[in-house]
Structure formats: C-alpha cells, structure tokens
C-alpha cells in the first residue's frame, strides 16, 4: 500500500506563521509617480480645453456681433491664440497641485503620530538653523554650477523663463504667491512627502533621494520643450536634481516637511528677486 497522498488530495495549507509577502516599496514609488503624472497631464488637458472653450465663445460672440460671414479657420486659430501668463500659471497650479493632493490623500496621508513629530520638530531651533543652511547652500551651489558652466560656454534658458518674465510684468503679486508659497508647498508634498517618503519609510532613503530628485529635475526641464541642447539640459538637471536631494536630506534631518517647504520657498524668493531686480535666472 502506497504511503503517498492520493492525487485528489488538496494542496497543503501554509503554516500559520507564514505572513503574506508585502508589496515592493519600489513598485509603490512608481505607482505613485504614475498616478501623479497621469493626473497632472489630465488636469492640464482639462484646463486647456476649458480655456479653449472660453476663447471660442468670446471669438464666436465677437464675430456674430460684427456680422461677419463664415470665419476662416486660419483666422479663428490666430484669434484663439495661446493662454496668457496668468492662465498658464493657474493651469500649472491646478494641475500640479491637484496631482500632489490626490496622491497624498489617496496613497500616503499622514497619521496622527507623524503630525505630532512634525510639530515637535518645528519647536526645535535647530530645525530652522538647518533650513537656513540648506537654503543658502542651494543658492550658492546653483550659482556656482552656473558660473562654471558659463566658462564652458553652456548657458541654458529655463523652460519657464519667458512665462515668469511675463507674469512678473503683469501679475507680480500673484506670481509671488504662486512661486514663494503655493509651488513649494505642493512640490514638496509630492516629491518629498509622497515619493521620497515612501522609500525612506521602507528603509531605502538613498534610493528614494535619487529617484525622487530625478523626477523633480525631469518635471522642471522636459527634453524637447525648449531650445536647450543636451549640455544645457544636463546642467539644469544637475541644478534641479541637487535641489531635490538637498530638500530630501533636510526633510529627513529635521523630521518635518515644513523645513523643506521653507527652504524651497526661500530659494524661489531669491530666484524671483534676481529676476525682478537683475533680470537674471
């Protein structure tokens, strides 16, 4: 008589001590990044469609009021034009801010213990000392990289420079609110709290720093969207990537995202002041 189990016997049940395998934090990182990218693109598309619909109504009403005949498609396209500085800034705010808030509340909302640790960190004087130090190092480092690159004949033009110049001339107060308050808050929420924070929590902070900083650099300078060549793009990526890494380090060092937001805001304030008073980038 055979001692083996019959063919129809069910498979053995795993021991009770075996726990289900946890999902990969790296996979979670790319899922978060993918959700944010799709949301950003979708909100940008919706914003463009709303603006196009508004302009279409305005142009159609003006044409009907003037008693014109069938409009020429080329003339209509020219009349529609492109969103102005205020429209582009608002669309960027809604798209990127919406993506950051969605991923944060859906994928990685803060719990009560994390909020308490952040509040405790805000009371420590060292938190603000590190914030000032990192913000100063970023300004000095960025200008140092730009100086060295200029000696090599590399002088990139940031993709958003023309937009910022137009917005400064026409909507200085709103641009200041956007660049110094709103943009640092939602960018830090997405790139540091959600993306970097996932891998930091999983015990892989250096990988999180590298990947989130690469994503931060890419979203600020997308190849093919400006006249910058490979060398110019590489310099901008080095600057933006270095900034992202510094903000990650500060967030981890102080234990509060508010430190990274404050350092980011200080950096943007210095850059905006340089643009207003010196026309520099």
UniProtKB/TrEMBL annotation:
Key words, A-Z: Hydrolase, Membrane, Metalloprotease, Protease, Transmembrane, Transmembrane helix
Keyword Transmembrane: yes
Transmembrane domains' residue ranges: 29-54, 85-106, 127-149, 169-186, 206-222, 234-251, 258-280
Pfam families named among the record's database cross-references: Rce1-like
Record-level Gene Ontology MF annotations: metallopeptidase activity
EC number: 3.4.-.-
EC primary class: hydrolase
Record keyword Transport present: no
Domain CAAX prenyl protease 2/Lysostaphin resistance protein A-like: 171-270
Protein name, entry field: CPBP family intramembrane metalloprotease
């Amino acid at each position: 008589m055979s001692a083996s189990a019959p063919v129809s016997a069910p498979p053995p049940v795993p021991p009770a001590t075996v726990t289900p395998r946890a999902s990969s934090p790296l996979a979670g990182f790319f899922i978060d990044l993918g959700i944010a990218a799709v949301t950003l693109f979708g909100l940008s598309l919706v914003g463009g469609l709303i603006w196009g619909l508004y302009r279409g109504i305005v142009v159609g009403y003006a044409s009907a009021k003037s008693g014109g005949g069938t409009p020429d498609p080329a003339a209509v396209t020219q009349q529609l034009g492109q969103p102005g500085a205020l429209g582009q800034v608002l669309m960027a705010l809604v798209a990127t801010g919406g993506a950051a808030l969605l991923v944060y509340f859906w994928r990685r909302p803060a719990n009560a213990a994390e909020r308490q640790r952040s509040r405790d960190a805000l009371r420590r004087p060292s938190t603000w000392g590190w914030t000032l130090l990192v913000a100063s190092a970023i300004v000095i480092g960025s200008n140092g990289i730009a100086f060295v690159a200029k000696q090599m004949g590399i002088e990139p033009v940031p993709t958003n420079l023309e937009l910022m110049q137009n917005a400064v001339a026409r909507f200085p107060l709103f641009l200041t609110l956007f660049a110094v308050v709103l943009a640092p808050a939602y960018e830090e929420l997405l790139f540091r709290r959600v993306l970097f924070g996932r891998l930091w929590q999983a015990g892989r902070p250096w990988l999180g720093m590298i990947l989130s900083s690469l994503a931060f650099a890419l979203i600020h300078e997308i190849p093919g969207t400006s006249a910058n060549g490979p060398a110019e793009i590489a310099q901008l990526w080095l600057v933006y990537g270095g900034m992202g890494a510094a903000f990650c380090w500060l967030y981890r060092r102080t234990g509060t995202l508010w430190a990274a937001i404050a350092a980011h805001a200080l950096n943007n304030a210095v850059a905006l002041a340089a643009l207003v008073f010196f026309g520099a980038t």
